[in-house]
């Protein structure tokens, strides 16, 4: 099969957000939201494979270093050191000539990152937990044991709600300026900025969905222990700072 991977498609776009705002206009909220209102159970809910979703998986080889270096930086801030892009393998999930997802996986480090996802391009999308099921199926098919999945990340976040969550966390930690000009924050569960980082954040919702629906498969304790945000500055033609590139990482507690 012909390789179909425009590298410029590496954007984490999810059909969830609404607008880009540094100062969020967020509705009242308490707690961390989950992906759906499906009932909570102690036993794992049924899963479907990406083939059953009508998708095909195309290996693309190793990502370029610049595509994962900011995730490496995020991992380094929580004590995980990866310097080689060769530990990652990148794939596209396609439906015909449409790319539904681009991701990279490094089972040796228990790591999975999403570069691009459009659930609207999944022909047979399950009624709930589609992203969680995609992550687990992709990780397993890359020879990863689900009980070792520890780090989940998004690169170049383009989802407005998630970007606003990262901004709020930077602001809570007194790093509002660094958000635009480039910086890194680490929020541990229960510390300052953590709740802001969680609120309406699609990455957190995905990890929570995996924890809730497939906890016995991944052997988790139900918590998102650490959240890491990395921003890379961008400027417009007038040399003004504009929306930065945002990279986020979450760790599954055990």
UniProtKB/TrEMBL annotation:
This is Uncharacterized protein. It comes from Monosporascus ibericus.
């Amino acid at each position: 099969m012909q390789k179909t991977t425009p590298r410029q498609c590496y954007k984490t776009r999810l059909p969830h957000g609404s607008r880009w705002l540094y100062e969020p206009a967020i509705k009242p909220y308490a707690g961390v939201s989950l992906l759906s209102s499906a009932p909570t159970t102690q036993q794992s809910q049924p899963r479907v494979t990406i083939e059953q979703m009508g998708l095909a998986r195309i290996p693309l080889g190793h990502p370029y270093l610049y595509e994962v270096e900011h995730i490496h930086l995020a991992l380094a801030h929580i004590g995980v050191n990866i310097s080689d892009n060769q530990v990652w393998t990148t794939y596209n999930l396609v439906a015909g000539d449409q790319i539904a997802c681009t991701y990279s996986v490094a089972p040796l480090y228990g790591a999975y990152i999403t570069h691009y996802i459009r659930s609207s391009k999944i022909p047979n999308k399950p009624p709930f937990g589609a992203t969680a099921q995609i992550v687990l199926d992709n990780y397993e098919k890359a020879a990863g044991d689900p009980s070792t999945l520890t780090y989940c990340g998004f690169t170049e976040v383009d989802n407005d709600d998630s970007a606003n969550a990262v901004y709020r966390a930077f602001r809570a930690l007194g790093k509002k300026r660094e958000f635009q000009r480039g910086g890194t924050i680490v929020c541990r569960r229960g510390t300052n900025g953590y709740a802001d980082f969680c609120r309406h954040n699609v990455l957190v919702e995905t990890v929570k969905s995996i924890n809730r629906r497939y906890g016995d498969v991944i052997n988790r304790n139900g918590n998102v222990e650490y959240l890491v945000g990395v921003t890379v500055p961008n400027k417009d033609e007038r040399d003004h700072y504009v929306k930065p590139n945002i990279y986020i990482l979450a760790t599954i507690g055990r």
